[in-house]
């Protein structure tokens, strides 16, 4: 099996786990802190398990930020995204089978318009993804914090879900949104997530480059 195949398999499995456990916890209507921990622990474990293979990125928006920052090659980034979206959709369909129907819309992320506007939801998803991508760039992708990097990434997601969960579902990840949405045929506000999250990753990658250039000049 070639190197890129191993990387794609790692990203597929890691993303599957994130959507299966994170989305599953949301679908079951568990308390917010439980949902936040399920998501944070899933991404942390993916980073620990697959960090030396693909990085355990498990997020197309973070992958985009990593490619812009020069931490992931563009060819690999494109293939990662294919594997990540595939893993998310596969997890959505497994949830559909396991839960015996579209329980809780399979944990699909939607904007709670009784608490926040659609534009507000867009801003939240972009900001959340920005901070998640920034954390990944300055820890795991830069090799600065060693074995603590997955903890930082996982707790960043826990923080985001704890605050944003009741407002937008705290996707911060196109694959997290697409998996349950496709399997459950449930698409309200989906464009927000598919646009806002890459925007957050894009800005994080650009800002990382700016900060690194500034540091090099200094």
From TrEMBL:
Annotated Gene Ontology cellular components are: plasma membrane
Q: What UniProt keywords are attached to this protein's entry?
A: Membrane, Transmembrane, Transmembrane helix, Transport
InterPro entries annotated for this entry? Answer: Aquaporin-like (IPR023271), Aquaporin_transptr (IPR034294), MIP (IPR000425)
Q: Which GO terms describe its molecular function?
A: water channel activity
Q: What is its subcellular localisation? A: Membrane
At the top level, the lineage of the source is Bacteria
**Keyword hit for Repeat:** no
Q: How does it sit in the membrane?
A: Multi-pass membrane protein
**Where are the membrane-spanning stretches?**
12-33, 45-67, 79-101, 121-141, 148-170, 190-210
Would I find rRNA-binding among this entry's keywords? no
Cite the PANTHER family for this sequence: AQUAPORIN TRANSPORTER (PTHR19139), MIP17260P (PTHR19139:SF199)
Family statement: Belongs to the MIP/aquaporin (TC 1.A.8) family.
| Designated name of the protein | MIP family channel protein
Native species: Acidithiobacillus ferrooxidans (strain ATCC 23270 / DSM 14882 / CIP 104768 / NCIMB 8455) (Ferrobacillus ferrooxidans (strain ATCC 23270))
């Amino acid at each position: 099996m070639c190197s890129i195949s191993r990387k794609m398999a790692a990203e597929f499995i890691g993303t599957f786990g994130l959507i299966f456990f994170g989305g599953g916890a949301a679908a079951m209507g568990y308390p917010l802190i439980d949902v936040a921990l399920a998501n944070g622990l899933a991404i942390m474990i993916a980073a620990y398990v697959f960090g030396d293979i693909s990085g355990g990125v498990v997020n197309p928006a973070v992958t985009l930020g990593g490619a812009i920052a020069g931490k992931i090659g563009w060819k690999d980034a494109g293939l990662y995204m294919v594997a990540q979206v595939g893993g998310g959709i596969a997890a959505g369909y497994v949830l559909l089978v396991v839960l015996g129907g579209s329980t809780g819309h399979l944990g699909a992320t939607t904007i709670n318009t009784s608490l926040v506007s659609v534009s507000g939801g867009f801003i939240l998803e972009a900001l959340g993804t920005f901070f998640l991508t920034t954390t990944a760039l300055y820890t795991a992708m830069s090799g600065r914090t060693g074995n603590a990097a997955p903890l930082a990434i996982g707790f960043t997601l826990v923080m985001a879900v704890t605050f944003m969960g009741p407002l937008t579902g705290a996707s911060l990840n196109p694959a997290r949104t697409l998996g349950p949405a496709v399997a459950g045929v449930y698409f309200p506000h989906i464009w927000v997530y598919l646009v806002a999250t890459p925007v957050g990753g894009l800005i994080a990658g650009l800002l990382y480059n700016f900060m690194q250039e500034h540091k090099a000049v200094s």
